[in-house]
């Protein structure tokens, strides 16, 4: 399994931050729809671009699992 470290110089755009906060507030907290939140988060442009940039299926599954853990917390 490939371990990737986050780049400290990288940050999401302000628009993506608003989208993520909105998904967490409305879908996770208010609706308690965790799987829907994961799907929506993976459609946020910067997160989708990162997921699409991953080469191996194992890396893609690992990233999706990380998003699921984040939502569960």
Describe this structure in words.
The chain contains 4 helices and no strands. With about 70 residues, the chain is mostly helical. Helix 1 packs antiparallel against helix 2 and helix 2 crosses helix 4 (about 55-70). It is globular, with a radius of gyration of 13 Å. The two termini are about 25 Å apart. The mean pLDDT is about 85.
Compile the SSE list and pairings.
Layout: H1 14-30, H2 34-41, H3 45-53, H4 57-72
Secondary structure class reads: mainly alpha
Which of globular, elongated, flat, extended, rod-shaped describes the shape?
A: globular
Strand content: under 5%
Mean pLDDT across the residues is 87
Cα distance spanning the termini: 24 Å
Give the number of helices.
4
Order of helices and strands: HHHH
Rg over alpha carbons: 13 Å
Q: What kind of sheet is the major sheet?
A: none
Number of strands: 0
Low-confidence stretches: none
How many domains comprise the coordinates?
1
Helix content estimate: 55-70%
Give structural attributes.
0% strand, mainly alpha
Structure at a glance:
The chain has 73 residues and is mainly alpha-helical. It is built from four helices and no strands.
């Amino acid at each position: 399994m490939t371990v990737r470290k986050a780049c400290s110089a990288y940050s999401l755009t302000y628009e993506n931050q608003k989208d993520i906060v909105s998904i967490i507030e409305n879908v996770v907290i208010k609706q308690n729809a965790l799987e829907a939140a994961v799907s929506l988060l993976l459609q946020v442009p910067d997160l989708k671009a990162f997921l699409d940039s991953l080469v191996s299926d194992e890396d893609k599954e690992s990233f999706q699992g990380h998003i699921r853990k984040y939502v569960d917390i």
